[in-house]
Amino acid sequence: MLLSLHVKNLALIDEEEVEFGNGLNILTGETGAGKSIIIGSVNLALGARGDNDLIRNGAEYALIELTFQVKEELHERMRQFDIPIDDDGILLIQRKIMSNRSVFKIADETVTAKTVKEIAALLIDIHGQHEHQSLFQNGKHLELLDEYAKSELKSLKQELEDKFAGYQKANKELNELIVNETNREKEIKLLEFELNEIVSARLKEGEDEELEKSYRKMLNARKITETAGLIYQLMGNENGAGEMIGRASKDLNSILEFDDKLNGLEETLSSLEILTDEFNRSLQEYMMDLEFEEKDFLEVQERLDLLNHLKMKYKQSISGILEQQKNTEEKLDLLYHYDEVLKEKKENCKKLESELHLLCEHITSIRKKYAKELAAILVTSLEELNFLQVQFEIQVRDHQTIGRSGWDEVEFMISTNPGEPIRPLSLVASGGELSRIMLALKTVIAGKDSIETLIFDEIDAGISGKTAWKVSEKLSILGSNHQIICITHLPQIAAMADHHFIINKNAIDGVTKTQIAKIDETGCITELARMLGGEYITDAVMNNAKDLKILAEKTKLARNL
Predict the structure, then answer these.
(1) Which of 18, 189, 237, 357 is deepest in the core (most CB within 10 A)?
(2) What band does 53 get if pLDDT is binned at 50, 70 and 90?
(3) In terms of DSSP bridges, do strands 483-487 and 102-106 run parallel, antiparallel, or are they unpaired?
(4) Residues 6+ apart with CB under 8 A from 308
(5) Cα 513 off chain centre by
(6) How far apart are CA 237 and CA 34, in angstroms?
(7) 429-471: per-residue pLDDT in tens?
(8) Could you give the count of Cα atoms lying within 13 Å of 358 in the half-sphere of its Cβ?
(9) What is the H or E stretch that residue 206 is in?
(10) Mean per-residue pLDDT for 148-165?
(11) CB-CB contact of 493 with 486 (8 Å)
């Protein structure tokens, strides 16, 4: 259940916090007051796309926080997402929108938008404005039927998706393999030439780097030799540093007996003498190693030329060329045994296709079973929403083209008037009928679902009068087992509120702000009167508002008896 919503610096909202309750939470207000911003902020917190234009003018960031009370049976699911949750089940979801990025947090842990969306799917279902118009699309019919049947379909659809991905991969590999005989012979000759060129080069990883070092050394051997010789003269020959340090060491030793403090200096000078001797020996050995034959230089140069040619030709490093050698050997092996491999891949594709067909048939049978069940329940639900003698069918048709969801086309069929033939929903239903049908679907699916909170943004589109009252009763009934948050323009629906919030837009110190506040029973009646009477609220309108509220309370009381 959604316990509270905290919004700061979002659009026209300065800072607002609202605490929702059990049952039916109603949000009302004048057109343009910002009702949809409230629901929009919930969507934003749960991962919807949001531009930095939403940040309130003059603010550095926008902040939305949702606090949920999570049912115990969902605690383990939360932990599977590595989301810590206490025994009390309180969960905080937060989104901070800045000029260049957004940060999502759950229980103070930074998470991705994807994780937020996955967790939100367990906690809340949001029906946005105009969503009922998605019923014009048959793809939505399939989605709703599968949602209703997910207890049996969920694992099967995942299996289907995995098998379909495997079939697509196998089919792609098969199509890539199919080549005519002439092209196959050309491909073999080309690959054999490349493989022979690479194998004969006897490549070793890192060889080019070592050769580069040797080449630079040989190329600059004269300069290195001259400089090293000069250094050796300075350090090791007669009158060199080594000889001078040796003399100094002898002289220092001759006076050690006169002052103990000279011992430290003697140790330092002795170490320096040893290091100088070691340096001179190492330098001499290095100079001897510099000697090489002209043919050695030519061999290194030729080898480097070969390696650089191959690297440029194949646009790869040495390790990349060695990997290409392995791939070429595998391709050649495949082409040498082409007929056998082709037969094997065809059989594999046929096997996978057969498995897909069996799985699709099984899924179709489940969909048809639940389609009859859902249609029968919907007829009852639609009659409760003031559809008279309605007929409703869900047709599941197999069109043999397999996709990730199977091969079924699902279409809702309806007749809303006695004597009229049943026809596709998209050709018959009006806007008001679509909104009621969507409400009926949401109600039925919610009855099978563990989601506690449902949000409806203007589910009352295109209805009025008695029909509006029927919708309000349905929302109230739904609120007895779920938390419902509903934006409405209709007094009949607002009257059923268990908790009523009013949204206003006011100019404060020259700045326009949207504000939300919970209202008491007196405030509810005043708001109902505004919704009934418009700008001028007469005594008659107030009495009408009181009667409407009393009737709503009696209806709820009678249902609970």
Answers:
(1) 18
(2) confident
(3) unpaired
(4) 208
(5) 33
(6) 93
(7) 777 788 888 888 888 887 776 788 888 887 777 778 888 888 8
(8) 8
(9) none
(10) 91
(11) yes
Residue closest to 488 by CA, chosen among 458, 447, 508: 458
C-alpha pair distances (Å), 77 with each of 74, 121, 199, 405, 467: 5, 12, 55, 25, 40
Ranges of each domain in the chain: 2-129+422-560, 197-333
pLDDT of residue 221: 66
Q: How confident is the model at residue 561 (pLDDT cuts 50, 70, 90)?
A: low
Give the pLDDT score at 3.
Answer: 93
Contact 237, 280 (CB under 8 A): no
Contacts 24+ apart (CB under 8 A), 321-326: 321/198, 321/203, 322/198, 322/203, 322/205, 324/194, 324/198, 325/195, 325/198, 325/199, 325/203
Give CA–CA dist 445/390, Å, rounded.
20
Structure tokens at 357: 């067909």
Q: What is the CA radius of gyration of the chain?
A: 41
* pLDDT per position as a tens digit, 511-551: 888 889 999 999 999 999 998 886 778 889 999 999 999 99
Q: Which fold has domain 2-129+422-560?
A: Rossmann fold (3.40.50)
Work out whether the CA dihedral 515, 520, 525, 528 comes out positive or negative. Answer: positive
- Residue 223 is encoded by which pair of tokens? 């300069």
Give me the pLDDT at residue 222, please.
64
**468, 460 Cβ separation under 8 angstroms:** yes
Can you tell me the distance from the alpha carbon of 216 to that of 205, in angstroms, rounded to the nearest whole number? 19
Does this model's pTM top 0.90? My answer is: no
